[in-house]
Amino acid sequence: MSKNKNDLQINNNQAGQGTGKKSPANLLAFILLFPAVAIIILLYVQPFFASFWGSFVSKQGELGFENYAVVTDRYMQDVYFTFGVTVFSTLIATIFSILLGVYLRLSQGWLRQAVSVLYRLPIFLPFVVVAQMMRSFLAPHGILNLLLAQANLIDIENPLQLFNWIGLSFGFVWKEGPFMILLIVGGFQMIDNSYIEAAKSVGANLYQIITRVLIPMNKQNILVAITLVFCSYVGCFSFPYMLIGGKTPATITIDIAHRVNYFRDYGVANALGVFSYIMVSVLAIYYVLNMRKGLYE
């Protein structure tokens, strides 16, 4: 790794740094990268800093922490609720995706082929469609409760109430789990069979193959999947709004829409947004640091 870094440094020096002049190659690289960097700055960096700055500006135009005082006074329960549901849903989706990914990697036959096709279907459905499906499936007299009542597992007059964090987590895992499976299975398929056969030859069982071969060798893909799904859950609006909108607690995205639509209070909405930035930034920073580490290994 150190040799590669030294070679890269030598190449950089040879490309023009040693002479103090920009080489044509450097100028061409700058020209090619400029449109992408400009778009990122215009569409992502500028709105982020504008939102962060706006969180300190009150409706009267004064700088201070008034918006954050409103958030800590009225919305902290929703912040905790959002974080809890997101962590729980991501954890369940990760476990489910790894187990199904292992099955798809190690098994053969028609059932494996059927599962490998069917699990992808939810990827193509938008959240708003999933929300409508879940409202029918999880309703007090919906499909799930009727099936459970037919099996004599519940009394239909006293059905399960799932328009809460349980239904929200179920819908999140149902919608984003397949996307996570797609990424994880792709990583599992890249692992050569010789590693699995070698583990079997020394007496490794299935659990040891999963925990000591498949997961360690696919760590980067799993981390990418966790990061993308976690950020998707934090920023999702339509599904929580249609399932638990109007109830307490709610998610941060519902609160933001409420402050903007009913009060035109962009300052508090921006402050709520900062809390969501904090949630995703911890995982995003960890992800970027690990990706850079993996790049140079």
Structure explained in plain terms:
This protein is mainly alpha-helical. The protein has 14 helices and no strands. The chain has helices at residues 2-17, 24-54, 66-74, 76-106, 110-118, 127-138, 143-150, 165-189, 193-201, 206-217, 219-235, 238-244, 252-263, 266-296.
**Order of SSEs:** HHHHHHHHHHHHHH
Indicate the mean pLDDT.
Answer: 86
**Unreliable sequence segments:** 15-19
Distance between the termini: 6 Å
Helix content: over 70%
| Number of discrete helical segments | 14
Query: Main beta sheet, described?
Result: none
Given helix and strand content, the structural type is mainly alpha
Radius of gyration: 24 Å
Strand content: under 5%
Count of β-strands: 0
Shape: flat
Short account of what is shown:
The protein has 297 residues and is mainly α.
Task: Jot down its keywords.
single chain; 297 residues; mainly alpha; 14 helices; 0% strand; flat
Write the layout of secondary structure elements.
Layout: H1 2-17, H2 24-54, H3 66-74, H4 76-106, H5 110-118, H6 127-138, H7 143-150, H8 165-189, H9 193-201, H10 206-217, H11 219-235, H12 238-244, H13 252-263, H14 266-296
